[in-house]
């Protein structure tokens, strides 16, 4: 088990390194001038030059990369004296704020959206999928599959915008979605997040539903289900404890990856609702060619995916005892 | 495949009660898109406590469907059942699903063919046996666990307390089947149905498992139905034998009667197809020609007539009239469903059996 973990850890580090290198490389393949953009439109030619020198944009790419990576671990001091404490992900355009600060502000928003939507998505998806499998062929099954299909086909930007129109502008049932820290007010947090949660979950649960349904159907054909009935167990125990447990592995995988994706930033959702989470920041950063911000958001998203795949793989060993021996 | 050895003297059946299981004119039909599948078409038999009934037949003869129906494990929606199945007095066919569920695992239980797939892969053996016990007895987990370990010990698993914490894939085939038996017997059921319990095991382990079943039967005095296609197994363990073909019973009697004085060409065919250790090694084997009938389209008249060497077709009754299950003269417990006269059957038996020994 330990060997497995170490191996996966090394693989994770390798993946993150590759991702950062590729992103870095891609950024410099863009024809625009990052120094000019960093400085702003009003800047004179000398000011742009100063920025370029300060950010060492004329250095060879690999040197810039190395400084960047070093900065993450030990912090970085720029030529004009600005200090950036570890982990230093660089400075943002215009204000020179540390990227780390921006990330610290943005992350709780993304986390809130992700966590709430994910839980809702799982409950809906697994619940409906299980019901569809149990009542196979009946109306509820057809309904579940149909709804899942509609959910998968609907674009998020349309759906989110529609919800906003219905619940906020036409009826004023809900206030403008905004982030209220749960530490200040749990109620405010929930109310502010309802629309983003609904948007993400009602589109996302489609996949979980289909996956749960097909896994359950397969499992229900297995011999050990027949045995559990032969023992005299109640139907709901057969479904809940025996069938679902045996079906859970692929569901866990997709759930893990889905959470990782959400934590990286629900880009469209955040943009529609004007929430400054990591997703929105990432899109803005790409548009404005802010190298540091782009690097930061990409790396964080990659980190979440890598960590979650690692966790899910280790979860397999917990779920399925047959895996432990191999 | 083992040779057919001389049947052991039947264990003294406990006669102080009426039969524990009574099946009367059981018909199990499934309606499918392609037509009606007549899996079981008029089966009647009974089993007393302490007695072992062997049900013999090829795949598709309806033997597994019979056992699943007795346990009430059929799907209520698509299955058409008529007749009666009385287990300890309760008619399974008419009783509520809840009532039957409460009997399953407690008054009647089943041992399945392949213990690797029949046991849940994610739960320990101990936990599965505990579950079996706690469904029917309101006891603490600890007490149930003690009982589970006790049962594992009783079926001959060494270090039962350690083993109970292991998973099914950590057991060998024979031990798994023992564990399955422990699980089925934990509630002391009066009726045990063993569906090909030794088919997935090698021959030496097979003998151990059969011995175990016999032991447990004499200890708990349960009625056992042993479903198998292996005549060797039947001759070892069964007291009574029921031969099934095409969803119907073709012969029924004590193991001596059915195996030594077979009254039906199908039974004789089965006996003859068993390879023997005696006789000429260059002789071909004698299988029964043809294939078992599709239960969607059971042949008219006698279900066996297309494959029967002695069938009286084209004018004779074999292809038009279904033979009734009638007792043999002189042996009222021995029943056979065949249009051939008793003398004809005796002649056949003498020539056939002499041939193969």
Folded structure, characterized:
The complex is a heterodimer of chains A (about 325) and B (about 350). With about 325 residues, chain A is an all-alpha fold. Chain A folds into 2 domains: about 1-85, no CATH class; about 105-325, MetI-like (MetI-like fold, Orthogonal Bundle), CATH 1.10.3720.10. Chain A contains 14 helices and 2 strands; from the N terminus they run ααααββαααααααααα. Chain A has helices spanning about 1-30, 35-40, 45-55, 60-75, 100-135, 140-155, 155-170, 185-220, 225-230, 235-265, 265-275, 280-285, 290-320, 320-325; strands spanning about 75, 85. Chain A has a two-stranded antiparallel sheet with strand order 1-2. In chain A, a hairpin with a 5-residue loop joins strand 1 and strand 2 (about 85). Chain B is of the alpha/beta class and about 350 residues long. Chain B folds into 2 domains: about 20-240, P-loop containing nucleotide triphosphate hydrolases (Rossmann fold), CATH 3.40.50.300; about 260-355, no CATH class. Helices cover about 35% and strands about 20% of the residues of chain B. Chain B contains 12 helices and 12 strands. Chain B has helices at about 65-70, 95-105, 115-120, 125-135, 140-155, 160-165, 175-185, 205-220, 230-235, 255-260, 265-275, 340-355; strands at about 20-30, 35-45, 50-55, 80-85, 90, 110, 190-195, 225-230, 240-245, 250-255, 325-330, 330-335. In chain B, the strands form 2 sheets. An 8-stranded mixed sheet of chain B has the order 6-7-8-3-9-10-12-11, with helices on both faces. Chain B has a 4-stranded antiparallel sheet with strand order 2-1-4-5, with helices on one face.
């Amino acid at each position: 088990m330990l060997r497995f973990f170490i191996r996966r850890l090394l693989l994770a580090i390798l993946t993150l390194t590759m991702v950062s290198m590729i992103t870095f490389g891609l950024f410099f393949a863009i024809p625009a001038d990052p120094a000019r953009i960093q400085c702003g439109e009003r800047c004179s030619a000398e000011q742009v030059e100063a920025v370029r020198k300060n950010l060492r944009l004329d250095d060879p790419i690999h040197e810039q990369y190395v400084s960047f990576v070093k900065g993450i671990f030990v912090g970085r001091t720029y030529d004009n004296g600005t200090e950036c404490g570890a982990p230093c992900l660089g400075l943002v355009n215009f204000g020179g704020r540390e990227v780390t600060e921006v990330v610290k502000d943005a992350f709780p928003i993304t986390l809130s959206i992700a966590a709430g939507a994910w839980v809702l998505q799982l409950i809906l998806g697994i619940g409906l999928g299980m019901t569809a499998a149990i009542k196979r062929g009946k109306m509820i099954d057809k309904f579940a599959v149909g709804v899942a299909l509609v959910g998968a086909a609907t674009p998020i930007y349309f759906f989110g915008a529609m919800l906003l129109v219905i619940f906020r502008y036409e009826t004023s049932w809900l206030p403008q979605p905004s982030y209220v820290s749960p530490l200040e007010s749990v109620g405010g947090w929930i109310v502010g997040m309802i629309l983003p949660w609904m948007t993400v979950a009602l589109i996302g649960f489609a996949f979980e539903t289909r996956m749960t349904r097909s896994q359950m159907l397969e499992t229900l054909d297995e011999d050990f289900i027949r045995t559990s009935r032969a023992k005299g167990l109640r139907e709901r125990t057969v479904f809940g404890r025996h069938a679902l447990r045996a079906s859970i592995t692929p569901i866990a995988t997709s759930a893990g990856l889905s959470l990782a994706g959400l934590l990286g930033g629900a880009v469209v959702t955040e943009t529609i609702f004007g929430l400054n989470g990591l997703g929105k920041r990432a899109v803005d950063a790409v548009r404005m060619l802010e190298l540091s911000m782009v690097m930061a958001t990409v790396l964080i998203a990659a980190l979440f995916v890598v960590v979650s795949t690692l966790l899910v793989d280790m979860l397999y060993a917990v779920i399925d005892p047959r895996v432990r021996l191999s | 495949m083992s040779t057919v050895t001389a049947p052991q003297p039947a264990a003294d059946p406990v006669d102080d009660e009426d039969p524990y299981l009574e099946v009367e004119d059981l018909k199990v039909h499934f309606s499918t898109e392609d037509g009606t599948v007549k899996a079981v078409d008029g089966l009647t038999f009974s089993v007393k406590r302490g007695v072992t009934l062997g049900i013999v037949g090829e795949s598709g003869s309806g033997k597994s469907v019979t056992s699943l129906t007795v346990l009430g494990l059929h799907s209520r929606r698509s299955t058409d059942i008529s007749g009666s199945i009385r287990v300890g007095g309760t008619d399974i066919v008419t009783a509520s699903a809840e009532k039957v569920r409460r009997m399953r695992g407690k008054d009647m239980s089943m041992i399945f063919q392949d213990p690797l797939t029949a046991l849940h892969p994610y739960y320990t053996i101990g936990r599965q046996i505990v579950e079996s016990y706690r469904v029917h007895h309101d006891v603490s987990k600890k007490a149930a666990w003690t009982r589970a370990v006790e049962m594992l010990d009783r079926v001959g698993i060494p270090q039962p307390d350690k083993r109970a914490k292991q998973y099914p894939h950590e057991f060998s085939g024979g031990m798994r089947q023992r564990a399955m038996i422990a699980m089925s017997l934990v509630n002391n059921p009066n009726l045990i149905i063993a569906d090909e319990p030794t088919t997935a095991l090698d021959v030496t382990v097979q003998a151990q498992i059969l011995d175990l079943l016999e032991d447990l039967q004499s200890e708990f005095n349960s009625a056992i139905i042993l479903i198998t296609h292996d005549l060797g197994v039947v001759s070892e363990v069964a007291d009574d034998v029921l031969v099934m073909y095409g969803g119907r019973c073709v012969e029924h009697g004590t193991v001596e009667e059915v195996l030594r004085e077979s009254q039906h060409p199908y039974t004789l065919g089965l006996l003859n197809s068993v390879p023997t250790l005696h006789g000429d090694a260059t002789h071909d084997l004698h299988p029964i020609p043809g294939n078992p009938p599709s239960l969607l389209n059971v042949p008219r008249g006698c279900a066996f007539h297309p494959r029967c060497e002695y069938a009286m077709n084209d004018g004779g009754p074999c292809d038009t009239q279904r033979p009734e299950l009638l007792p043999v003269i002189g042996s009222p417990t021995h029943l056979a469903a065949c249009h051939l006269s008793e003398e004809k059957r005796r002649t056949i038996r003498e020539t056939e059996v002499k041939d193969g020994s």
